[in-house]
Amino acid sequence: MIIVCNKLCTDEDIDFIQKKAVEYGYEPRLIRGVERTIIACIGDEIEHPNLMSLVSLKCIDSVMPIQKRYKLASREFHATDSEYEFSGAKLGNKHFLTIAGPCSVESIEQMHAVSKDLVAAGIKVMRGGVYKPRTSPYDFQGMGDEGLEILQEMKNTYGFAIATEVLGEEQIEKAAKVADILQIGARNCQNYHLLKKVSHAGRAVLLKRGMATTVEEWLLAAEYLLVNGCEEVILCERGIRTYEKTTRFTLDVAAIAAAKKETHLPVIVDPSHPAGQLDFVMPLAKAGIAAGADGMIIETHPKPSEACSDAAQQIPSNEFKDFLKDLQPLIELMVKE
Ligand code: PEP
Ligand code: MN
Is residue 268's pLDDT more than 80? Predict the structure, then answer.
């Protein structure tokens, strides 16, 4: 921590600040300049963050942290890219993974139909929501526990690893019996109680970025998962809220590059939710991949016109193989770098 004192700062104040620094576990070093005095405090800021409160003293202009507030998620802690494996498919460290499936699990027929198309497209990890976070309480809320049984059947029949969202604490244990990856949706990115609970499930966690969450807050949310025992955290950029109405959300491609720079955790792109409509899914997927995403999660449905949620953005699943084929050259180019 660097403490910058102002002109009001007396020798007694400096003495007091240094004593406080020692009390909080830091080793203070005094630097007297012509205009200002600076007190550099050496110590682990994550273990001893309390010095920030000194900024309330009139004789102090600012207290500046030096260390990143996320430790386990940072590249300082783990320099090389983390790599995970789901159902034989690798993610991270130059392994690109596509997770695909419908927005919501709706029926056994729908899931068999989409599964066959996913197998044909070479997909190993299936997504499908059973507990749905809908903006309106009158909209389809997901099949719930019955949907989990359908996901289990898809897992048994087609060998997929499963990714599904949990909205609340009571859903975690049930979902973890079926799912390899538990999704924390955008609306719960900063629900710290839920993050702590889901960390103990013994499953990978896919953490969507909240629609008003900064990159630092997103990484700190990942830190909550890591420090509470989750061993595999996947970050997912899914668009943020801006004034733009043409798309559903604004895909923040810079956040993908920024997160990749800061963290060893895999960062994937969700091109479906920011697009909000089919036409934009391909360009946003390309943008995310070009920005350095390690993978993507994408919505596809056997009959989008009959979908109970997110109908406009879902790729017809019989076209999904070709969709991926068109992206393949870009994926290969990026993975080679
Ligand atoms: C979803 O994946 O279907 C979903 C609801 O995502 P998000 O949390 O990004 O809105
Ligand atoms: Mn959706």
Answer: yes
